[in-house]
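Quick question: what would this complex look like in 3D?
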Amino acid sequence: MAIEDDVCVIGGGLAGMTAALRAAREGARVRLLSHKKSTLRHASGLVDILGYADGELVADPFDALPSLPETHPYRRVGDDAVRAGLSLFDDVTGDAYRGTHTDANALVATHGGTVKPTARYPTRVAPGLASQDRKTLLVGFDSLTAFDAPLAADHLAAAGVPGATRGVTVAFPGDFRADSRVTRSARALDDDETVEIANGSMPVRRALVRAVESHLGDAERIGFPAVLGEEESQEVRNALESALGIDVFEVPMGPPSLLGLGLETLFQEALAEAGVRRTTGNPVVEFDADDGRIRSVSTDRNGRPTPFHADEFVLATGGLVGKGIDSDREGVVEPVFDCHVPHPDDRYEWFDDEAFGDHPFARFGVTVDDDLRPLDAAGGTEYDNLRAAGSVLGGADFAAEKSGSGISLATGHAAGRAAGAAANQ
Amino acid sequence: MATETEALVIGGGSTGCGIARDLALRGVDTTLVERGNLTHGTTGRMHGLLHSGGRYAVSDQESAAECIAESRVLREIASHCVEMTGGLFVQLPADDDEYFEEKLAGCRDCDIPAEVISGEEAREIEPYLTRDVERAIRVPDGAIDPFRLCVANAADAEEHGARIETHAEVTDVLVEDGKVTGVEVRHESGPGKRSHHEPGTTERIEADHVVNATGAWAGELGAMAGVEVEVRPSKGVMTVMNTRQVDTVVNRCRPKGDADIIVPHETACILGTTDEEVEDPDDYPEEQWEVDMMIDTLSELVPILSEARTIRSFWGVRPLYEPPDTGTTDPTDITRQFFLLDHADRDSLAGMTSIVGGKLTTYRLMAEGITDHVCEKLGVEGVCRTAEQPLPGSEDFSVLRDYMEEFGLRSPVGRRSTERLGSKADEVLKTDDPNPVVCTCEAVTRAELDHAIADAGTDLNATRIRTRASMGNCQGGFCAHRIAALLHPEYDEATTRTALDELYEERWKGQRHALWGEQLSQAMLNHALHATTMNRDRDPAASDDGIEYDRFDAGPPTPEAAADGGRAGGRDGTDDEEDDRGD
């Protein structure tokens, strides 16, 4: 029997999950198809709306939205959709995130030692905000090479943060391999495993406290790389805070990012609760359309196509990183529906000569109408019942703007609502 | 500031470093100056082929004979820089039978072991070769790491008393009474190891004899001394693939042509190359069509290359030279032999000798020749020992040891590290500190990087060439910041940051020629990690405009309930604190 749903969302990242959730809240029967692990594991777990406009630091993203170009995804969906997407996010994440009390951006210390503007930040990160004038101790682990706490502390001082910041490097307690994965230490803390130390053994949380307490000095808060627990992070942080007597926070890290993975888990729980059906592990390789409407898409399961029928489809396959946008020496394509992706013919015009220059490739993606329906080269809609959301959309350099999560939420929300509503008609 | 030396070598490529080593081994007081880091010019921009000589067996038999002889020497003295992959000259249907026979005969004339194998046998050795392959000649080609080789020569020269100055650009050649008496150099950050942010200095170095070993730049250096050196810089492109599609060197067996060789190198393959004369060795176009031609033409030989992942491309300039009036128009016809230009004989300018032409495979022989010459000029009697005495790292390299247990390294990491370090593995890897892998693409550990940094100062590109860190698939996206962090606290935060930016930009430069498919995806990921997650593109520390921190969210206004119930969480930003800030 054929698989039939009202709405089929392709892509399991933040945009796809948001779209699926929103469509389900319209009362639609929703299917979410995802191929590989989402790129959330690469993401910091911070949720940015807009950190820079025209290269200038933005204190309030909503003030800056009108200054964006017409073709920007935010302008397509409008300010209200940005707020609605964020509100859905707040609803899903609840106590796990902070930042709801204000429109202003927060400045969060990065593992590279800079500060970064962001709209929502995990509760685990909250006590570390750079705006607070508090004496801070950063702690790094000598086997975790991505975060050098003394260097990050000096870097933050160079960035002019109000509070004095020091850094220290200690050994993570226990006899773990020098380059074991961050998840290994996180799980040890989750379970408060007993670890071997110099004279005997003790629970790892207590051993960690012992490793850092002599360095505290007059610190008013202490920051660790974001490895303090995977499942039980609140409990781990509470235990450290009560033993050390000061606030404990975490510094967001690069891949594999426990904060990004934690965010994914929260959304997956919300999806399950909303009754979204999930099918994972196989790529969408072909589709069937007539009369300008998609009828079904098929995944490839060991060479055997499995069709998924729906009334409405949302394309949320990601950008260049997630392979929702692909390229070869000849050109740039959207590989699932072959939607038009504008790009210069000459691939030497896809990039800027400076590493952090204004890269055209960073803006590659499909163009859409105000209803988020992808447009063909002539400006007509590709398919009546196809909408696009997230970084498969062109027109924004989310890395330079610090707008990636916000675009996923706003466009995922708008696409999910429209698809759900259309399916109900 | 003025200093003196007996011999001054200009140029820190393989030839210059080889000369410095040979001079130092013969007891000559030697100084080498190089404007960039070691291998900065041509040496660091070659495909890493250790020539059997087969390539020149028809067109240039003298070079071919030199190559096979020197290849045998390098396998002995530089074993930790060499991988004897073997090589094939492959004939496709379009390729001439007669040339194939000439190549075979040429190899035999030059004492190059050569064996004809069938197309089927060739495909057994290299399964990705095209099905069209008719037959092939098997020769002892290999791969050589030019960075490691160069650094090992420089290190041994230093061991024997030479002074090696990188980031020291010659700004003038001093000439008095028809004799070169030395040079003036500008140190980028003072003499010794480079340190970013340190102000530069100039130095007069007086020398009894000056050797111009600047390769493609020999004409420019000559001009500073008022003599003409007719070097003909010729550019060639090389394209780096992300994996070893072939494990032996694969050459196309036809008279000559662009894009006819694939060299397996460590974890990658390098496609080469073109040969096109340029006016200025520092400024020539790097063009898209050259990269396309590498991939398209070599895909005829190894079809999967058309679909494979390219990680970057780079260009090098050859220091081609031919004696005046030879009149060769096509650079591919110019001999690969080397020439020693005694400016006293040639131009009545005593005190300076230039060396031009040649190739990396024959660098030691060139160094021997010029060192003999300089020693004669200086009246030094000494015997060349460079053909017998192993380079540092190759002294005791009979067996690759498994360091997995001894150093707590996982097996492949230990293998890679010990291959790179050779007999220095013990010294470098024996550390009491944890030794995590910092660059995962190339399996480079912290101890190896610390060792290289001790040698190279803040120049992370010099550390890169010593270790291969940041040279894999991610091109530094995942590791550049981790590598840079090792400079701290010996070097301050601003210095560390500048060094990181420089490494990141250098890695970007070559990737620009590989931005499609997987590598474009990687570039976007790197952009996201460095710009989004770390905000390095708008780093407030690098900007003159201070941030008005009090305009930003300082946390929820109401105290959060602390889970232990007793400790107030009001530090997250109360109204009182709000009032204290803002100035």
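Answer marked as accepted. Residues 493-511 of chain B form the longest helix (19 residues).
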